[in-house]
Amino acid sequence: APHVLDRCRALVDPALREAVGRLHPWLGEMAAYSFGWCEVGGAPVAGTGGKGVRQALAVLGAEAAGAPARTGVPAAVAVELVHAFSLVHDDIMDADVTRRRRPTVWKAYGTGPAVLAGDALFALAVETLAAAPGGPGAVVPLSAALREVMRGQADDLLFAERPWTGPDRVRPAEYRAMAEGKTGALLGCAAALGARLAGAPPSTVAALDRAGRQLGVAFQIVDDVLGIWGDPAVTGKPVHGDLRERKKTLPVLLALDAPTPAARRLAALLAAGGDAEEAAELVERAGGRRAALAEAGRSVAAVERALGGTALREPAVAGLRSLLGFLVDREL
Questions:
Q1: What is the C-alpha radius of gyration for the chain, rounded to an integer number of angstroms?
Q2: Do the domain assignments include residue 332?
Q3: What share of residues in the chain are helix, strand, coil (percent, to 5)?
Q4: Rounded to an integer, what distance in angstroms lies between the CA atom of residue 330 and that of residue 332?
Q5: Is position 228 within any domain?
Q6: Residue 187 maps to which CATH number?
Q7: For 295, what's the count of Cα atoms within 13 Å in the CB-facing half-sphere?
Q8: DSSP string for residues in 247-260
Q9: Please, are residues 332 and 293 in contact by the beta-carbon 8 Å criterion?
Q10: Which of 14, 75, 206, 327 could form a disulfide with 58 if both were Cys (CB 3.0 to 4.6 A apart)?
Q11: What does the alpha-carbon distance between residue 31 and residue 47 come to, in Å, rounded to a whole number?
Q12: For residue 258, what are the domain limits?
């Protein structure tokens, strides 16, 4: 998959930089910083920011529909801008001080400026997509996907207020719906927008949307597993970090649902605010890690079904499959 990501990045990056160049210089600097292109103050950095999964999905969506890769570029730019906007605001909401091993935008520039930078990225995304051939009609599905992202984010914030056990606890099915909104909606939208700009029939657009959504759910679950058991040297996150922050992630919810002594001990430990290392061990003993990975496997199977059920161009489908493998097999 890294080859797919590199190929798509080389295609999309110039257009993404050109779009960011249209912003107010100060907002443009914060945007560039969020993409990992510069330091605070604007000095260029020779790095790339994130993995570029969403832009790759948009390009592959266009190719899967039989169009040249460049057809998907405006969709790729729009979804990368929207993703950047969501991360800038997400870091403020979660009070996260680092992302990709450096200070978050709000930590580096202040909360007010970071809110404004996120707003600017969002406006730029809509403008970029609407200006593309076939783009005006694509703004509606982008906006609908964003509304779903916000629904998922809202549920995620509200989950924190709810108890670990009892009738008001967060159920695994609720968690799955949250992940489909928060992570899946934009990944589905990315692949679907690429196909839409390529003039694909509605059945193709819908199949790619389904594939991207389920990819997002699998990606989120794997992220949850890495958030508890991932190697900090690889993930850039502290060991057992999600448990220390008391996040209601799927491995924990599934472990608490298990009818075992380990699950009961885990419930008592979480209620008492106990040790994260012991909690991680109990989640594993109660089968939470194994059950979460099985759930991720079900989502992967759903991606395969969506890709197999429509007449998509084979090289692009191979690219989508390699992306799926890369995202789901990360350091597991």
A1: 20
A2: no
A3: 75, 0, 25
A4: 5
A5: yes
A6: 1.10.600.10
A7: 29
A8: ---HHHHHHHHS-S
A9: yes
A10: 75
A11: 15
A12: 2-326
State whether residue 185 is helix, strand or coil.
helix
The residue ranges of DSSP E strands in 68-144, in sequence order, are 98-99, 102-103
Single-letter amino acid, residue 182: K
Alpha-carbon distance of 140 to 227, in angstroms, equals 34
Q: Rounded CA gap, 56 and 222, in Å?
A: 19
Assign 3-class secondary structure to 12-56: HHHHHHHHHCCCCHHHHHHHHHHCCCECCCCCECCCCCCCCHHHH
- Nearest alpha carbon to residue 178 among 142, 215, 150: 150
Structure tokens, 187: 């990944």
Q: How far apart, in whole angstroms, are the C-alpha atoms of residue 259 and residue 254?
A: 10
CA 125/CA 88 separation, integer angstroms:
14
The residues facing 44 across adjacent strands are 38
- Give the angle 222-228-233 at the CA atoms, nearest 5°: 90
The DSSP symbol for 225 reads H
Q: What angle do CA 223, 57, 157 make, to 5 degrees?
A: 40
User: Which residues face 102 on adjacent strands?
Assistant: 99
Residue 170 has phi, psi (to 5 degrees) of -80, 125
Domain contains 58: yes
Q: Which of 187-201 are b and which e, b meaning 16 or more Cβ less than 10 Å from the residue's Cβ?
A: bbbbbbbbbbbbebe
- Report yes or no on whether pTM surpasses 0.85: yes
Per-residue pLDDT reduced to its tens digit, 278-321: 999 999 999 999 999 999 999 999 999 999 978 889 899 999 99
Torsion-angle region of residue 212: left (phi > 0), alpha (psi -120 to 50) or beta?
alpha
- The dihedral region occupied by 42, where left means phi > 0, alpha psi between -120 and 50, and beta the remainder, is left
SS3 98: strand
Count of alpha carbons within 13 angstroms of residue 106, beta-carbon side: 19
The residue to which tokens 């990606």 are assigned: 219
- Tell me how far apart the terminal alpha carbons of the chain are, to the nearest angstrom: 16
Low-confidence ranges of the chain (pLDDT < 50): none
Q: For 237-252, what is each residue's pLDDT tens digit?
A: 778 888 888 889 999 9
